[in-house]
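[job 4471] stage=fold_predict status=RUNNING
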Amino acid sequence: MSTRLTPFSRLLIVVAILSGVVFGGKYLIDKGVFGGSSSTDNSNTDSSIKQGKTLPIDDDVLNVQVFTFGNAAPGLYFNNGTEPNENSRFYKDFGLKVKFHVIDDFDASRQAFKGDKVQLFNNETSAMATEMEGLAPFDPQVVMQLDWSRGADAVVARRGINSINDLKGKKVAVTPSTPSQTLLLFMLEAANLKPADVKMVEVPTPADAETAFKSGKVDAAVVWDSQASLREVPGSKELLSTTTASNIIADVFMAKKSWVDANRDKLRKFYDGWMTAVAEINGNPAAKEKAAAIMASNMQLSKEDALGMISALRLTNHGDNINYFGLNNEYKGITGEALYSKMGDKYHSLNLAPANRPNWRALSNSYAVSNSTLQPTGDNAGEGNARFSPATASAKTAPAVATKTVSITFPTASYTLDENAKSLIDLQFADVAKGFGNSRVRIEGNTDNVGDKLKNVELSRKRAEAVASYLENTYNMDKNRFVIIGNGMDKPVVGCESNASPECRAKNRRTEFQLIGE
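[job 4471] inference complete, writing structure tokens
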């Protein structure tokens, strides 16, 4: 059974795992077991910001569930606290009375939604399908995106495991049906591995995964605080985190369809106020400081911890929401629909999500986004794809975090992609490249031993360039993101070094996609 977090226990968790505080962690804290009670010293909390006179609580109040987490900052900042009050900009600018309910217990947050104690509640896109059996009867709809996780979960591994590919056959501790498992599943896909290729050891929370890793019970683990694991396990390393896997975990507000249909204007005003706050926090350090101070004084945190929580996220603005809901034809990144559908299928294949879950069309409602008075310009402009500095020479030999082989067939002596080749890239690598948006991609072209060696090297390089150009032009990826290598016949598949059979020669004619760090 879930246990509601006391302010003291929440603070301890924040201090211990500050580098990993995003909704992936928040989602799991509230499914896990952290309890107890104690007093705490809040001397570092900035409590100088006071709410105005509290407004009467009546049926017109919009009740919003939030977690003790960084994505609550825009709402508390714009509302000047948790209670409806005269100094709230929701009230002064839009005539809205808004009350934020800090409900950290996961099950309690869902019961509050089902019982109409709150109209909006927090959820997370990638793992949402796993709880649709319980939520679907209430017709929940995603009405706005709150953030992208940027530094929450990480995969740590023992000495000798240097890439995701090395996890094959290894024991990996992970909390199922959560964003932590989403990260692991995405990483396995980037390494041409299936879930069955690793031995998933299920644990209640990432804190338990960390314990299992430290005790030597597993070879790798998805954790919040990778640094604690690395300090205590000699020779261990962080393979990858949501800092580079930047478009995988997306938090949202959901509401009942019946409420949205009856309160469209209220929802639109709330959205405009929230997004105004996001633009100010993202664009003005002083606003971010103020948001952290208000968050700290209302959630019994230090201001420093609140700032750390906010900084671990990309608070998504109006332009980001347009992209998330697929309303921008120019946007080629991950959308809410793509993330929900992809991960729903993956979780269903693991028997963790129902087959008859709602599709995205039924689950999403972009009314507030589509009817906003804001324009996606300036601080309201969407984030866009990551930009990279030109790759250095060391990028050609940097260790690969993950390697994915795709058998792209070219006509003899040609380096032009045909439609089948483009489809292969779309199906087998594009989602990986979009999800790991802050990772460089090294593309290596390889041939068999037929023909002149030097010509094969040049041909394989041009083929790798053709693949990079396709990703650049089709998905608006930065040209500097790619590192191009032409191996020719010099890097055959293990076991096919002699190219002795047609099967081996076919295996050697391949393109490899490798995720590498900066």
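[job 4471] summary: Residues 453-475 form the longest helix (23 residues).
[job 4471] exit 0
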